[in-house]
Amino acid sequence: MSHFFHLQAQPVDEFNDIRKKLNADSTFDKIDVSAGVYRDHVGEPYTFPSVTEAKSRIIDKHHDYNLCMGIPDFVSGAAKIAVGENAVNEGRVASCQTVGGTGACHLGALFLVQKCGYKNFYLGTPAWPNYTPLIIQSGGSLSTYKYFDSQKRAINFEAVQAALKKAEPKSVFVFQLCCHNPTATDLTMEQWTEVAQIMKERGLIAFFDSAYQGLATGSVEEDGAPVQMFVNEGLEIVVAQSFSKSLGLYGERIGCLHVVTNESTRELVADQLRYIFRAECSSSPAFGARIVSTVLNDNVLRNQWKHNLTEISSRLVETRKYILQKLTDKGTPGNWTSVIGQRGLFWFSGLNEVQSLILMNKMHVYLPKNGRINIAGLNSQNIDRFCDIFHDIVVSKI
């Protein structure tokens, strides 16, 4: 008898399952609007020109181990993007390179739960599904509140406020910085300011997940403004950062965790991060981090990257406008203005699970069952067909 016979199967990973079905589908006109990947005008994963140039510069780099906390130039450059130059220059930021944004979230959760004893986490729903197992496996407990009102297609800010005012001191609130996944609906700066004030008064901890910085407005500075405001208000915060989306380096797994504290405790915090990370990974992957470091620390490449982010953001906005116009012209029943009111890669379309499964199983349009659509998967070759199919599923012609 096996030592492992008692194990039970875990829930299916929806996106892994979708990917398997997509790869097995030989239909020539299938449409992939599932995973959060930015694709170019012909449907291929986009490679930033700055990344191409950076790769050519580091091709002869060695493959030795790096420091446990990461490649210094990468960590410093990433921190300045995530939390701002002032906090970094003032010596208030402890940072550790991680294996992707997921690794940053996990390291942050382990730090807060195991080293700080802050076990109560709050999460607005709907949310990225990986938060729940990540927090639970780190030893935290999870409470949820209704972040998004599906009827009004808007943030339920009253629920956000109520959760903040109910939570015990030292509770951790997980926030997505921008391009909220899956709702594509973010707090306004006025709302962020109120959130910061309540957290400051009640002694709560903000844990930001920054996976899409630069893809909401096209500006890393504007997208990062909420974090900057929290830092300027003197709040100690945790930021999990990823460069998968913002530099198109999905497979390189480039992340960084930043803890903004004060100068007297920064080294102590950094030592805890080092200790945790040493036991998990010892050292993070180097190649992708060197690419990012090269881009961030070269004025020409950094400006080129920022310009490309502006172009990408503009294209996403135009795609949204096109979808709305097509659905309006077709007379698709319902109010579809949410497509232009939301931002980033996603459109939280309002399609239900049954409709989403029909699209995938019958029409070869691949999307998650919550109806979230990656509009970056649409281009001139497939967007008209997508709008036709979307109209048909809404009017129940499929």
UniProtKB/TrEMBL annotation:
Enzyme Commission no: 2.6.1.1
Catalytic activities: L-aspartate + 2-oxoglutarate = oxaloacetate + L-glutamate
Cross-referenced PROSITE patterns: AA_TRANSFER_CLASS_1
GO cellular-component term (any): cytosol
Family: Belongs to the class-I pyridoxal-phosphate-dependent aminotransferase family.
Keywords: Aminotransferase, Pyridoxal phosphate, Transferase
GO molecular function: L-aspartate:2-oxoglutarate aminotransferase activity; pyridoxal phosphate binding
Protein name according to UniProt: Aspartate aminotransferase
Cell cycle in keyword set: no
Gene Ontology terms: biological process: aspartate biosynthetic process
Assembly mode: Homodimer.
Native organism: Sungouiella intermedia
InterPro entries hit by this protein: Aminotransferase_I/II_large, Asp_trans, NHTrfase_class1_PyrdxlP-BS, PyrdxlP-dep_Trfase, PyrdxlP-dep_Trfase_major, PyrdxlP-dep_Trfase_small
Pfam families assigned to the protein according to its UniProt record, in alphabetical order: Aminotran_1_2
Named cofactor requirement(s): pyridoxal 5'-phosphate
Keyword Transferase listed: yes
Domain of life: Eukaryota
Other notes: In eukaryotes there are cytoplasmic, mitochondrial and chloroplastic isozymes.
Entries under CDD domains matching the protein: AAT_like (cd00609)
Aminotransferase class I/classII large domain residues: 29-388
